Amino acid sequence: MNLKEKLIASFIAFENQVDLDNPVHEIRSEAIRNFEQKGFPHRKMEAWKYTSLDRLQKVDFSLFPSKDNDLEYRDVKKYFLHEVDTYKIVFIDGIYSSYLSETTHDGVDICLMSSALSKPIYKPIIDVYFNKAASREETLTSLNTAFTREGAYIYIPKHKAPRKPIEIVHFSTGNEAALMLQPRNLIIVEENAELQVIERHQSLTGNETLTNSVTEVFAAKNAIVDYYKVQNDRESASLIDNTYIRQKDNSQVSVHTFSFGGKLTRNNLNFYQDGEHIQSTLKGVTILGEKQHVDHHTLVHHQQPHCESHQDYKGIYGERSTGVFNGKIIVDRLAQKTNAFQQNNNLLISDKASVNTKPQLEIFADDVRCSHGCTIGQLDQDALFYLQARGIPKKEAAALLMYAFANNVLESVRLPELKLRINKLIAQKLGVRLGFEL
Amino acid sequence: MLKIKNLHASVEDKKILKGINLEVNPGEIHAIMGPNGSGKSTLASVIAGREDFQITRGKIEFDGEDLDDMAPEERAHKGIFLSFQYPVEIPGVTVTNFIRTAINETRKARGLEEMPANQMLKMIREKAELLDIDRKFLSRSLNEGFSGGEKKRNEIFQMAMLEPKLAILDETDSGLDIDALRIVANGVNKLRTPENAVIVITHYQRLLEYIVPDFVHVLHNGKIAKSGTKELALELEEKGYDWIKQEAVL
């Protein structure tokens, strides 16, 4: 049985196990039908030309972990921020860990998708928002929707801002030989409210994991949301991240994606601007080696006038790693005075590494500013010589230049501790002792 | 200290240096002048070890060692410093952090411990004062958004920190106004000792009013066409380079 057959076969058992009377039952059923009809995406599809899921479909993944697993905080401490206090929503093999988590209902809701789906008080919110930003056509999103059970549920009412950032962390313990996870996050930030989220997926052993995650973010008028995705997983982990963001007037949403690890990572990041004077920021730093693969597919859909989007993705590819950047911008006829900026710069530091980059612009309005640029290059030899001539050995000089290349994407990171840690991760990834403390 | 013998060098099969002979001893200041395209900057890059230049004939010795197989960083560790005509911008790395890295790499190569932080800070303060550099400047990203003059002053600041045996100043005067020129020249003069030497590469005589050379060499078409004392620079200022070119033809 391949993975598709296994998933479909287990759907009925899954639905029985959760709650057949649940209002989302219909949504789940519709979603599994879509997946059943379309199956996994394949390389004959334009959007999946450079990323193959063939190998993953042959792995015998456990879909539901057989037992609860515990972790000691001291063993996983390093995966959390320390200097700032945070709310934490932590999952171990897909199951909520109350021991490692710190949730709240004090003025804001920072809790679990499973509660939001089952408790009547959340029903009005679920009815309005659940699966309303996510695509009903994308087969992997449908697959996640069908199996929606657990994840983070965050609701920030008008004029509120949680006192501290929220960390959403998924650990996989390796107690299953191979494990597939499908977390589902729903994040609603009401008018004039603010939120900062850090999301991370972390395998603790070399056993294979596949995560197919869906996150929906709704930013109402004047809302401000900063979302940070830290992808620094082990070589045994693959991640398909499907994020859908819907913004209303004057809202500002930024997503920073730091892709430093994992075997195969696919980021489908979609912004829908449903209002005026919206700002959307998409930034990424990718640093890969070995045979790692990352595929960034972004979409910004400008639907209304006077909005901005700003995309800046930097990639450094070594050894036999491969990368993809596909940035699609749609500007509707109505969306006059749009200002859309897109930039993707890549450094190839090995002859065997490769990257495919493609801007895709569909512009139907006439009074807009859209600029895009992509580069694929090697290190600047003039700069390298400059550093060497100051006594910095070639290897360190190259690392310092790569660090400088990637570093400016971090300027917009508004959490100082996170910025510092990402800086250090970059330095560490590039294998350099910088000779100074960051 | 530096002995260049019959040096020929090319870049991408284009011959640029065609037989340079030059000897620089401790305590001396040499000026290398010449029209654009005469090979001045190439000579500086070749001494510092730039890899795109091939030495096709002749050799360069520094303190009795052949430099040919040495990487640029090894030459820096031996005490050769090149002040760049076009310094590179490095966002995200401050002037202070950069200089600390450069100093500690050099010390490591010489088998020394890293310089203690307080000693480093003291030295930074002294040298910054010497070159009239604002402390705020030191926490900015290296050369990023610096004016032409700031870049050059920063080059000389790094030179002051690294205390090289041989400093090569490649067109350090270009982009400097007269006040900045005076400060930079003053800095260079104060850093002089009987043990170190300076090669000043310049198109104009202006800088040489402040950094007075012991010897002046005129480069033309990849060769030293004429050598003399500081009076030669004045003569060039007056007559231009044409008479050198004519002499070279004859």
From TrEMBL, chain A:
Domain SUF system FeS cluster assembly SufBD core, residue spans: 175-405
Pfam families associated with the record: SUFBD_core, SufBD_N
Annotated ranges, domain SUF system FeS cluster assembly SufBD N-terminal: 22-168
Cross-referenced PANTHER family: PROTEIN ABCI7, CHLOROPLASTIC
Family the entry assigns: Belongs to the iron-sulfur cluster assembly SufBD family.
Name of the protein described by the UniProt record: Fe-S cluster assembly protein SufD
Gene designation per UniProt: sufD
Automatic annotation (TrEMBL), chain B:
Pfam family, one: ABC_tran
Domain ABC transporter: 2-246
PROSITE patterns, sorted: ABC_TRANSPORTER_2
Matches recorded under SMART domains: AAA
Keywords, in A-Z order: ATP-binding, Nucleotide-binding
Stored PANTHER family: ABC TRANSPORTER I FAMILY MEMBER 6, CHLOROPLASTIC
Family the entry assigns: Belongs to the ABC transporter superfamily. Ycf16 family.
UniProt protein name: Fe-S cluster assembly ATPase SufC
Species: Robiginitalea marina
